[in-house]
Amino acid sequence: MRSTDFDRLHIPIASVKQGDRHFEFHVSSFPDMMEGSSFPDGTLIRADVQTIGEDFLVDLGVEGEGEFRCDRCGKSFRKPVQGRIQTLFGYGKSLDRIEESDEIKLLQPSDRVLDIARDAADALILSIPAKILCSDTCRGLCPFCGADLNSETCSCPKETADSPWDALKDIPFD
User: Fold this and answer.
1) Separation of alpha carbons 128 and 35, rounded Å
2) Within a domain: residue 137?
């Protein structure tokens, strides 16, 4: 396994053509990570490359232990994440009617490497849940006094007096 910088996540095309199909990288840090999250021990990137004619299908897996901040209680915690993404790198001959996208990267005849940096970042970012919780049972903070409801109880009133739904309490339902 090679340790490398994020911007040097490259697979040499010559290596693939010579029979190498599996590549592993260790990346110490990723740019553009979400605020409040990091991967202090780095991430492991595994890429399996399959040749399809002159094109290359890259099956990319990313894993690491992230350090996050809980969206409910604000505590820092660590959680393992894994992501997977596939990208087709092609010279365009067999991809005539297809435009470049996130899943398809067009190569130039002069290209000597498959640049998988953006794909690795996408796989990692997409593996992070939209709502990051320290546990499924996290109760969060009290909206009135700020007490951590996971470790203490507070004496704040549970209902507010001025609810817009209060008018519905007086409607008789027969």
Assistant:
1) 12
2) no
- For 88-139, what is each residue's pLDDT tens digit? 998 866 555 555 566 888 888 899 999 999 999 899 989 998 899 999 999 9
Identify any residues that bridge with 24 across adjacent strands, giving them in sequence order.
46
Length of the chain, in residues: 174
Answer yes or no: are the C-beta atoms of 89 and 102 closer than 8 Å.
no
Print the domain residue range for 92.
Answer: 2-127
Strand order in the sheet with 55-69: 2-4, 22-27, 43-52, 55-69, 76-90, 104-106
* 142 falls within a domain: no
Whole-structure pTM value: 0.76
Q: Which two three-digit tokens encode residue 104?
A: 């398809």
* Contacts for 116 with CB less than 8 Å, ≥ 6 apart: 9, 10, 11, 45, 47, 58, 60, 87
Q: Which residues of the chain have pLDDT under 50?
A: none
